[in-house]
Write a structure and sequence with these properties.
The structure is a homodimer of 308-residue chains. The first copy, chain A, is 70% helix and 1% strand. Chain A has 308 residues and is mainly alpha-helical. Chain A has one domain (5-305): Farnesyl Diphosphate Synthase, CATH 1.10.600. Chain A has a two-stranded antiparallel ribbon with strand order 1-2. In chain A, strand 1 (104-105) and strand 2 form a beta hairpin. In chain A, helix 4 runs antiparallel to helix 9, helix 7 runs antiparallel to helix 9 and helix 9 (184-209) crosses helix 10. Chain A is globular, with a radius of gyration of 19 Å. The interface between A and B is large, with 65 and 65 residues.
């Protein structure tokens, strides 16, 4: 095998570094072409929501999947930043009092706590818009078919049939819209929509940027789906086993709210076994790429073994 | 002149009819390709937010501007629906308790009143996403440069440097983030961002769909800006003169909150004079198009003379 764990962690932190710089540039106070002004309170709060935290796993996946397809540089970086902006918008809105009502995120006050609720809603709205703006900008790709393909993919993964729909199902699972006792199939659908779709798109974006053929694209989508599912099972395990101090946010929330997780449905051992199976599935999807895909193989292991 | 007021109202109501049908189709319960499921509570609330109301002025402008550029049918209809979805998202979020705290919209309970706050936030989020998805879909144009141009234009008009930025300035103008006494230039900037940018883009979208040359596009953008400004002055006049019953929402809100409007700054007569000047400016921008642009000339008159 061409790679090693230390190569992996170097690449992950290198990606986090350039993504941080890319996000900083996108969120500067200077108005971009076609913009009338950038209100300073909004920009402050957007930077607060986005900068200085997170593993930047999603952009890392986009950058590495694009590299596997032979594309490096500005395009994958910008597409990765767009996925991260979209992810950050979802965190800001999910934390709101009427949603999950969280006070802490990454160990700091959530946006509506640090600013106010109206600002947090607008921050989320503007981050979503900016994600699509970044993808549609010619700086992301000189090929407009690539740009509109990226927009379409992110929209499908994040909208009513993806992430936002999953969040609605998640709120329903608390029983707030009538009795809700979720079975295994429903928990899996909810998780696939709420977190899996965007993780899977993070990988697929690399295939779009690389104008991969249908077979390569299908393989990357399969890999992305396995990784997304593994991420969520690992998340359920962490929520059961980790301390709030280690995670920088509350744990055991799902149990408090009576929401079934895969740990409830499969048991802790069953959930860990499923994680291992998903790693194998991800490996199988990458089989055709050989050694070049070693970083992505390590990424799925990182996802299931992470401690935060 | 080739057209008449009765032609105008016929075209406006015909556009409203096909837009309503288009929006209905986009908001059906049936999952689209790439979507995992469409949660029924979310779809119900999205339809509640979007269907059965409004003059559909923005899609009308897109359809008529595209027709002027020689493009008719599915493309302009879909682009118009996208702008309307974006507009509806902004209404749902602006009405939220932490924002303008409105109970009524078009004479009916607002979305967070009819459903709940979490659902209203998600409805707005998903409507924004759907707007970009519709534009990026090949059904809107077979030319990917047109699709990504539409996405980029809508994003710039609606994001942090456009509509969302304008809403943040509007909240600031209430004095909630420190003392705020807005002068004329600031009120104009706020209005241009909050409502002008999207109205102007509604027209520009027609130029993008028609792949207009630079001069024609510039003329349509100028027309759209004048129309957007006229819309807002007329809105300020209506807010001062109309009854809540006629408007289907509260009036005099800006004064209650101590926000300066153009009527405060220019006086009622001054505001009405400005409306007339903006109509002339819009006419001047359309001069090069001759009789074919008659519907757009009537549109700006409709905007300043409307009663709701």
């Amino acid at each position: 095998m061409a790679s090693s764990i230390s190569t992996f962690t170097t690449r992950l932190s290198e990606a986090a570094r350039i993504v941080e710089a890319g996000l900083q540039a996108l969120l500067s106070d200077k108005a971009a072409p076609g913009e009338l002004a950038r209100p300073s309170r909004l920009m402050d709060a957007m930077r607060y929501a986005v900068l200085g935290g997170g593993k930047r796993l999603r952009p890392f996946l986009t950058i590495e999947a694009a590299r596997l397809m032979g594309v490096e540089g500005e395009g994958p970086l910008r597409a990765g930043c767009a996925v991260e902006l979209l992810h950050c918008y979802s965190l800001v809105h999910d934390d709101l009092p009427s949603m999950d009502d969280d006070d802490l995120r990454r160990g700091r006050p959530t946006v509506h706590r640090a600013y106010d609720e109206a600002t947090a809603i607008l921050v989320g709205d503007a981050l979503q818009t900016l994600a699509f703006e970044v993808l549609a900008d010619p700086a992301t790709s000189s090929d407009p078919a690539v740009r509109s393909g990226l927009v379409l993919g992110l929209a499908r993964a994040s909208g009513l049939g993806g992430m936002v729909g999953g969040q609605l199902l998640d709120l329903s699972a608390e029983g707030r819209y009538g009795p809700a006792e979720l079975g295994e199939a429903e928990v899996r659908l909810l998780q696939m929509m709420k977190t899996g779709a965007i993780l899977s798109f993070s990988v697929e974006a690399g295939a779009i940027l690389g104008q991969a053929d249908a077979a390569a694209r299908r393989s990357l989508v399969e890999y992305g789906r396995a990784l997304g599912a593994a991420f969520q099972v690992a998340d359920d395990i962490l929520d059961r086993e980790a301390t709030p101090e280690a995670l920088g946010k509350r744990t055991g929330k799902d149990r408090e709210k009576g929401k079934a997780t895969l740990v409830d449905l499969l048991g802790l051992d069953g959930a860990k076994r499923e994680c291992r199976q998903l790693v194998e599935k991800a490996d199988a999807a990458l089989a055709g790429f050989g050694d070049k895909a070693q970083i992505l193989r390590e990424a799925v292991r990182f996802v299931v073994e992470r401690e935060v």
